[in-house]
From TrEMBL:
This is Replication restart protein PriA. Residues 473-625 form the Helicase C-terminal domain. GO terms for biological process: DNA recombination; DNA replication initiation; DNA replication, synthesis of primer; double-strand break repair. HAMAP family: PriA. The lineage of its organism: Bacteria, Bacillati, Bacillota, Clostridia, Eubacteriales. InterPro entries: DEAD/DEAH_box_helicase_dom, Helicase_ATP-bd, Helicase_C-like, P-loop_NTPase, PriA, PriA_3primeBD, PriA_3primeBD_sf, PriA_C. Keywords: ATP-binding, DNA replication, DNA-binding, Helicase, Hydrolase, Isomerase, Metal-binding, Nucleotide-binding, Primosome, Zinc.
């Protein structure tokens, strides 16, 4: 009888595992890292086999119920990574392994039967000797030229009937084999390497030396928008592949992936694998198999692609490294940048972080004496100028009688671009038609009944909650006082689209936000339509603010720079600067110069003024002064602990218990510089009927505050069964 140690994918102690017996019918099917289904706490859960064990000293031991995957996409390196994640993010080993391995998928879902010719029959003389019938010979020639077609596809391409294919199969000249379905079309024609600028050449040479070194290293590439960072990435990857090693490239948004895919596949062909959340589990399974076997040497994808099962990893590139989308929202709340650094350390590899607006913490680490090397590119390709930026004070517009969405300057600029047949982008980081609906008689704001957040009015007259999806009709009378003075305030992307169509009725307008890109492939379709002439003005949220390289765009309008500026978060100024600089960088990437118009009610704010001048260093030094005064990162580390439950009193009780416990533990551990902030209601106090409170641990030493949280977590145990506790180490938002 065999016994196994299993890490279950449910919240338990950090390194807690459980023992199960392998029944006779599963003998030989279970191995290290098998994904299995086991009984746990009265239900069946999935877990991962960590190894075989001696018979445990237990009165009763349960059986493994079934093998979900004989070999999940895990290996020894990824197991070491999971152990590191347990210590870094205070999660269970089962949760860490589940995050790394992803969802299971049967190979049958992504396999199909295709036709290939047998080996050794290429050449006219051999073909003539093997088949005399013209149709059979034509089908055999097509099979040799295009292996991997389905039977019907081969018959259609060769212009023969399927019985002709069957005859060749019967003769043994063709064979039908199983193959993974292709999730991408054939790669575009190979694009040769571009001529490097002197700055690019200097950066590439430094990276080549780093890749050749047997020591792991991390580099921050600070390059202005349009400076050619992607070509640097491609050259670094080429060198990595020449050494027989693999590369992972992360992009922050699925919307960026299609453009990157085309560029990368034109250079590396079918050696590129794609991993992101829009793929089905079966498609991910097929891509991971190509990565594991070395058929795919370049992995391109969003955040979770950092866990790709690369056996020969040598290089990790994180494009737009400052983006908050690299932070996972659910436990374990990992940051792809930190995971990349750990994987590089385990593989003696190189991490390259690229951005025109690096995260404050990243740039701090790249200063002299820091752990990152700093690479800079200050010039755009072909010495193209950065776009001119104009700030419009919307207070003056209002004083002059303009109560509309667009300033007069932006209206004129849009009209000029339409007359010259140039393209424009309008950016607003808020979807919907209006941000709030209010009764002007009693002041009642229409809120979601399940979340403590205002409902957003959409163009179809429906009020929607962007957190839980609740929908209701826009009321004609106030549900609180019965008044009829219901009005909408604020602006969303749908309202911007309506106003553009009113001002320019003959203009072709496209909108790109979460409402228009929910279907698979919709990002690519909209971008293709805009870049190939199907739209003159593109309206969108932050998914259009970075990475898009459309040479015809000469104007970018920021409808309201204040949406992110006054959020109650210590990173609000940083996010504002990054968004403004990134979206401004979409203009003037071709032969014609670009212009940016930023509309704001706070034109004197330093984040807006430095963005106007494309001046990251001035912003960095100003922001660091504020952070140091308030002891915020990078001058401290934070842990946010969120408590949620259906009963607010239970949630408050749990938060207060934790506050008392953390205070006592920090004194016992001598952490005099550690602060416990809160508890207090979360930024959104209720989501999906669950009340939310939070507290924050703040201190100069990351290990110290994690140790305090770890001790409290162990002592809490299952004390508060009705309250979920979520730990976020180094949160990107409070």
């Amino acid at each position: 009888m065999q016994y196994v140690e299993v890490a279950v994918s449910v919240p338990v102690g950090l390194n807690q595992t459980f023992h199960y017996r392998v029944p006779a019918n599963l003998s030989g099917q279970v191995s290290r890292f098998s994904r299995v289904e086991v009984p746990f706490a009265g239900r069946l859960v999935q877990g991962f086999v960590l190894g075989f064990s001696d018979p445990p000293n237990l009165k009763m031991i349960k059986d493994v119920k079934r093998v979900v995957e004989k070999q999940a996409y895990l290996n020894e390196e990824l197991f070491q990574l999971a152990q590191w994640m347990v210590q870094r993010y205070l999660c269970s080993i089962g949760d860490a392994l589940q995050t790394i391995a992803g969802s299971p998928a049967g190979a049958a879902r992504v396999k199909e039967r295709v036709i290939v010719a047998i080996d050794g029959i290429d050449g006219d003389d051999k073909l003539t000797g093997l088949v005399r019938a013209p149709k059979q010979r034509r089908a055999l020639e097509v099979a040799l030229a295009s292996p991997g077609l389905k039977k019907s596809e081969l018959a259609e391409l060769a212009e023969v009937s399927t019985p002709v294919i069957d005859a060749l199969l019967a003769k043994g000249l063709l064979q039908e084999v199983e193959s993974y379905k292709k999730i991408m079309p054939d790669p575009p024609p190979r694009q040769e390497s571009l001529q490097l600028t002197p700055e690019q050449l200097t950066v590439v040479n430094q990276l080549v030396n780093a890749i050749n070194s047997p020591k792991p290293s991390a580099w921050l590439l600070h390059g202005v928008t349009g400076s050619g960072k992607t070509e640097v990435y491609l050259r670094a990857i080429e060198h990595t592949l020449n050494l027989g090693r693999q590369a992972i490239v992360l992009v922050p948004e699925i919307s960026l992936t299609p453009q990157m895919v085309e560029r990368f596949r034109s250079r590396f062909g079918d050696a590129v694998a794609l991993l992101h959340s829009a793929l089905s589990n079966g498609e991910k399974y097929a891509e991971k198999d190509r990565i594991r076997t070395g058929q795919a040497m370049v992995v391109l994808g969003a955040r979770s692609a950092i866990f790709a099962p690369t056996p020969k990893l040598g290089l990790i590139i994180i494009d737009e490294e400052h983006e908050s989308s690299y932070k996972q929202d659910e436990s374990p709340k990992y940051h792809a940048r930190e995971v990349a650094l750990q994987r590089a350390a385990l593989n003696q590899g190189v991490v390259l972080l690229g951005s025109a607006t690096p995260a404050i913490e990243s740039y701090c680490r790249a200063r002299p004496g820091g752990p990152y090397g700093l690479l800079t590119m200050t010039q755009r390709i072909d010495q193209r100028p950065l776009p001119r930026v104009q700030i419009v004070d919307m207070r003056q517009e209002l004083a002059g009688g303009n109560t509309g969405i667009f300033s007069l300057a932006l209206q004129r600029a849009l009209a000029q671009r339409l007359a010259r047949q140039e393209k424009s982008i309008l950016f607003l980081n808020r979807r919907g038609f209006a941000s709030i609906v209010v009764c002007r008689q009693c002041g009642q704001v229409m809120k979601c009944p399940h979340c403590d957040i205002s409902l957003t009015l959409h163009h179809d007259g429906i009020l929607r909650c962007h957190y839980c999806g609740h929908r209701t009709a826009n009321p004609r009378v106030c549900p609180s006082c019965g008044g009829k003075a219901i009005r909408s305030f604020g602006v969303g992307t749908q309202r911007v689209e309506e106003e553009v169509r009113r001002l320019f009725p003959d203009c072709q307008v496209l909108r790109m936000d979460a409402d228009t890109t929910s279907r698979k492939g919709s990002h690519q379709k909209l971008l293709d339509e805009f870049s190939r002439g199907g739209g003159q003005i593109l309206i969108g949220t932050q998914m259009i603010a970075k990475g898009l390289d459309i040479p015809q765009v000469t104007l970018v309008g920021v409808i309201s720079a204040d949406v992110t500026l006054h959020m109650p978060d210590f990173r609000s100024a940083e996010r504002t600067f990054q968004l403004l600089t990134q979206v401004a960088g979409r203009a003037g990437r071709g032969e014609k110069s670009g212009e940016v118009i930023i509309q704001t009610y706070d034109p004197e704010h330093f984040s807006i003024l430095t963005a106007r001048n494309h001046d990251f260093l001035s912003f960095y030094h100003k922001e660091m002064t504020h952070r140091k005064a308030l002891k915020y990162p990078p001058f401290s580390h934070l842990i946010k602990i969120l408590f949620s439950g259906l009963n607010e009193a239970d949630v408050i009780a749990a938060a207060e218990w934790w506050q008392d416990k953390l205070t006592a533990i920090k004194h016992e551990c001598g952490g005099q510089e550690i602060e416990i902030l809160g508890p207090a209601p979360a930024g959104i106090p209720k989501i999906k009927d669950r009340w939310r409170w939070q507290l924050v641990i703040k201190g100069p030493d990351s290990r110290e505050i994690r140790n305090v949280a770890r001790i409290a977590l162990a002592q809490a145990g299952i004390r508060f069964k009705q309250v979920a506790v979520s730990i976020d180490v180094d949160p990107v938002s409070l």
